[in-house]
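## retry 2 of 3
previous attempt timed out at serialization; input unchanged, resubmitting
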Amino acid sequence: MWPIPADRLCKLRFNHPGQTHCISAHGFPDTLCTIVPNWSGANITASVTCQDTTLQFTLENNGSAASQSLRYIIIEDDVVLLSGQNSYGIGETTTFEQPANGSTWRIESAQEPGHPFSNLALAFAEGCGGFGSLGYINQFPVNGIQPSWHRMCVENIGAFDPNDKQGFPIGVGSEHNIRPGQAIDYLIRFQNTGTDTAFTVVIRDTLSAFLDPISIRAGASSHAYTWSLSGQGVIHFTFNNIMLPDSNVNEPASRMVLYSSTLLRTLMCLWAASLKTMQPLF
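## retry succeeded, writing output
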């Protein structure tokens, strides 16, 4: 995983409860080495800037060609407040403004057809004008079209269970609805709270029928592992010779983090229904 500097951790402790913080990672090389067919070269970027009493939303085409007419939306908390269509010349921008009222704001734009990285440009802001609403950022995806970039967002919390599994985005509303084909990033954490060292740890999970096992991408982890898929979507993560000390001997070293993702194959589903109980086997 990506380490957080100690001074950054100190700042997180004193921020607003429930406030969302994001960490980004940038990998290199980050440029295309081949020509992408069926893509004009238009590239839409999105940004949100907090300016005292207003928020400024900007969509820009910083690509090498003019774009087609693309749909955009602006969301306040979880309600679509504004939508429309727009096309962009090379270097052309479109700007919108909304009051800084403490809501969580988000702008999305469809990406140019054939774009090699994604079909969505996005940006969001929380806490501009106060913290009137929290908990909305992770209802939607937080990663857009930036090549070689990945972003993860978490909320400030107090006490937590050291053994858990979370899926992002969490989805909108009480049914946690997400878009068709949306990628789900899973964060799996566990801790050895026993009285001796754990030598081998196996995480076994049976995937929901709503998920496409072929699309699994095993991601970063705090410890080396191997993984396999068997039967009807049964996935195993195996940590051989992990030598995980118990929390009584070394509390920080007793923790383990695994980050992976998979893609949905359904038109719409609830991510909560797709999560089975995590079973660490010591």
